[in-house]
TrEMBL record:
Coiled-coil region(s): none
Binding site for Mg(2+): D42, D112
Listed GO biological process terms: DNA repair
Keywords assigned by UniProt, alphabetized: Cytoplasm, DNA damage, DNA repair, Endonuclease, Hydrolase, Magnesium, Metal-binding, Nuclease
EC number: 3.1.21.7
Signal peptide: none
Broad enzyme group: hydrolase
Descriptive protein name: Endonuclease V
Function, as annotated: DNA repair enzyme involved in the repair of deaminated bases. Selectively cleaves double-stranded DNA at the second phosphodiester bond 3' to a deoxyinosine leaving behind the intact lesion on the nicked DNA.
Swiss-Prot/TrEMBL cofactor(s): Mg(2+)
Compartment list: Cytoplasm
UniProt cross-references to Pfam families, sorted A to Z: Endonuclease_5
GO CC annotations, alphabetized: cytoplasm
């Protein structure tokens, strides 16, 4: 992609993000006790000759038992290049294709990526909410610095957190889900508040990972599906 094409795409993508921004609502659109099924979403990539391919895996768990109740995946060629700040435009086509294969309707989606914790508050978890029409949470393994603002490390104890505040606004949260393990970065996607997002994420942690169960399982599934597709 040449510089002109990239500039044009960035302008188009920025316009879409600005149009969606006023529709973000960081309040719960649901009663927490109504949550039953939670979906984890992740993607993995590989190259074939000069083409880039990806697979999106969605794993749904029962929020109470933590049992897996459904798994689906989609795959295909990735037609949008990676442009920082515009990951949703690259990944959402495969996400939606996978969602359309689900027989169960999740009450909430957790994405391996950011939501409101984004330079324009439009990480993939937030952007996806408008297509899924469901509450969403973003959970990232690392922090992409916004406006030169770094995060403060939380205490070394389970459930400790510090908020990431930029221009007097809370963008997201650095959360230590497990003692002696690196923190993760939690942000609202849409139609949910940050405290509820944190509560749900912590309720989906076990001793196998610092990531919430549905996201960790979706991540494992992407590696398995990618290997299968490459071998095919």
């Amino acid at each position: 992609m040449n510089n002109f094409d990239e500039k044009k795409r960035i302008q188009e993508f920025s316009t879409i993000q600005r149009e969606l921004l006023p529709q973000i609502n960081l309040e719960n659109k649901f009663q927490v006790e109504e949550i039953r099924y939670i979906a984890g979403v992740d993607l993995a990539y590989w190259d074939v000759d000069e083409a880039k391919y990806g697979t999106c895996c969605i794993v749904i768990i029962d929020y109470f038992t933590k049992d897996v109740v459904e798994k689906v995946y989609s795959y295909g060629e990735i037609l949008v290049p990676y442009i920082p700040g515009f990951l949703a435009f690259r990944e959402l086509p495969l996400v939606i294709e996978a969602v359309e294969k689900l027989t169960l309707q999740p009450d909430l989606y957790i994405f391996d990526g950011n939501g409101y914790l984004h330079d324009r508050h439009m990480g993939i978890a937030t952007h996806a909410s408008f297509l899924l029409n469901k509450p969403t949470i973003g959970v990232a393994k690392s922090y992409l610095k916004i406006q030169d603002v770094d995060f403060m490390m939380p205490e070394n104890k389970e459930g400790a957190y510090t908020d990431i505040v930029i221009n007097n606004e809370v963008y997201g949260r650095t959360l230590r889900t497990t003692q002696n393990v690196k923190p993760i970065f939690v942000s609202c996607g849409n139609w949910i508040d940050l405290d509820t997002s944190t509560e749900i994420v912590m309720n989906c942690i076990n001793n196998e990972s610092r990531l919430p169960i549905p996201v960790r399982l979706a991540d494992l599934e992407t590696h398995k599906i990618r290997k299968k597709l490459i071998e095919r």
